[in-house]
């Protein structure tokens, strides 16, 4: 499934897309991902990061939703490179307008189309998402220093730059370690490598700490309770391994 196919899928299920996202934050994240995708394709940049963000946002849909079922059954290309065309700006705009025009429980459109009101500022949504990720338990300063002394940088670990007043350095979420130790979990390192945590630590953290319909829970909360292979398989579904 190419990025264009993904948008076609969303248009085809437009009447149920908003209904599958009753939480306003989830709906806004899908809209923000679509805006990022629209900007990428209109400026000629790679669509890959925006499509990955959209795929993560769509994981908030319930597993029985037709979009979730289609995404589980077919892989799609995460970039517009080679013979896989990037989605057309008009297609992105169509899905975004349909999503923002209707909230959950809204009756299907009929007759004249209502004007779409501007959505939340993507910068505000990004700031709120980063604040949420920075609020999770993380290593203390001395623990982080001890980790660096004993194991080095370990690029596969998620480290989030903390810009908040009074903060220093970066935060290393604690879920990545064996409880009570500074020993990184092998499955976390493997999944983080798949998610390119060294390049996009925020995206990797969002995958671990957000709801995932394929896993029926939050991946970080499922560590040690579901097979490692299932976590890796869910990550592979996102990054599209050819």
Task: Explain briefly what this protein structure is.
With 242 residues, the chain is mainly alpha-helical. It has helices spanning 3-12, 14-17, 24-43, 48-58, 66-73, 89-101, 122-134, 141-151, 186-194, 201-209, 219-222, 228-239; strands at residues 160-161, 170-171. A two-stranded antiparallel ribbon has the order 1-2.
Number of helices: 12
How do the helices and strands follow one another from N- to C-terminus?
HHHHHHHHEEHHHH
Distance between the termini: 12 Å
- Number of beta-strand segments: 2
Q: What proportion of the residues form beta strands (DSSP E)?
A: under 5%
Structural class: mainly alpha
Overall structural domain count: 2
The strands making up the biggest β-sheet line up spatially as 1-2
Q: Biggest sheet, in brief?
A: 2 strands, antiparallel
* Fraction in helix: 40-55%
**Chain-averaged pLDDT:** 75
Shape by Cα distribution: globular
Low-pLDDT regions: 75-84, 105-119
Provide the gyration radius in Å. Answer: 19 Å
What does this structure look like?
The structure is a single chain. The chain is mainly α and 242 residues long. The protein has two domains: 3-105, no CATH class; 129-239, no CATH class. The protein has helices at 3-12, 14-17, 24-43, 48-58, 66-73, 89-101, 122-134, 141-151, 186-194, 201-209, 219-222, 228-239, and strands at residues 160-161, 170-171. Strands 1-2 form a two-stranded antiparallel ribbon. Strand 1 (160-161) and strand 2 (170-171) form a beta hairpin. Residues 75-84 and 105-119 have low confidence and may be disordered.
